[in-house]
Amino acid sequence: MMKRGILNYPPEFFDHIWQQRWKLAAITGLSTLGMVVTAIAVTPPPTLPPEAFSEVVEQLHLTASAPLDQGDDIYLREARIHRGDTLGRLLARLGIADEAAQRFLLVAPETQALHRQLVPGRVVSARTSADGALISLHFPMNGGDTVTLVERKQNVQGQAAQFTAREQTLQYETRQVLKSGEIRYSLFGATDSVGIPDAIAVQMAEIFSGEIDFHRDLRQGDRFTLIYEMQDYGGRAARTGRILSAEFTNNGKTHQAFLYTQDDGRQSYYNAEGKSLKKAFLRSPLAFSRVTSGFSLRLHPILKTWRAHKGVDYGAPTGTQVRATSDGVVQFIGKQGGYGNIVILAHAGNYQTAYAHLSRFAPGLKKGDRVSQSDTIAYVGQTGWATGPHLHYEFRIKGTQVNPLALNLPTAPPLDKRQQTLFANKAQEQLALLQLLKDSPVARFE
Ligand SMILES: [Zn+2]
Asked: What domains can you pick out in the chain, each with its CATH number?
């Protein structure tokens, strides 16, 4: 495993790591160095997310080891489940031309669960002989935690082919991936170019959502470095895990985040000093996504700047979820002149936030309701004085609008003294890894 990983990496990268060795050893000591090299060694080059697989991914000639009499070549085929699919259609796309297998899969009691698990997007794989006889079928179940494995039994002379089906728990292999990138035009442009899955890019935006407004603050030349988990199955990236640590340099200011699990199992991100990254207010009332990041904002020609209209505008398609930037109580919900449909939330400490031009409100939400940070309270629209769909967001202190982009907002409490020490040790290791990666040469992409 380790050897394969090393071979997949360009040799220059390793030369570079060895040049960095003294630096790293100085920070963390030799025991961590072992961990560093392992972590890098098992990082393969960018893998495509499962969505990228085409209908039939590969037709591999494998050495015949399954119980087929013919001694034929064996083909591995994969097919994605479509919306409205039937098991019969799926088997046809997998190239299974095997009456006994089809009968078993369609009518045997032990395969009936498969009919209920035709979830669009899941990838089913089959091993067949060249003429379509089924050798084994691999059918993911229950959100990908288990798989039903259908196998051909050893053929008995003179008898029809028989099959078995059993459900197994999937054994994922978790590995750490280290990636670094630089923003030229957009965050997704940068993450795409280094093969970071969308789920990880969005996680990164969420982690820093109290410090950076990913819709408005990003600058050309911003850099990020990430260590995250990927879970593999059968040697292929199967699903994304958590970000373990991250560094983001935005407009010259560097932010760091380290995942830390407290004794009671609670997980949160902290900076290198052990301060929580969870802020009382999110920087942006819109969750960061491919859709919102690429939506161009048409500003009202007169109300172009914050000074002129005392709010921040976020371009987004009608229907995009609007979230409460902090815990609070609904103070007003309804229509208000040029604002159109508006929600005003009251928060602790004489703060208020307002969300305007909404197409509609969250079902059932009414004056006096309590909301939590990140709750969906309404949907983007263009009601009131708006020339295109966008969210107008205001931050008010004692009723007066202030510029939220220029505000330093309160933080969640830091770790206690004992946890702080435990955290500091972990953070040091991760910091050294981030540093190593940050200093390594990064390919620049358009
Ligand atoms: Zn506005």
From this structure: 51-169 (no CATH), 173-279+419-439 (3.10.450.350), 290-406 (2.70.70.10)
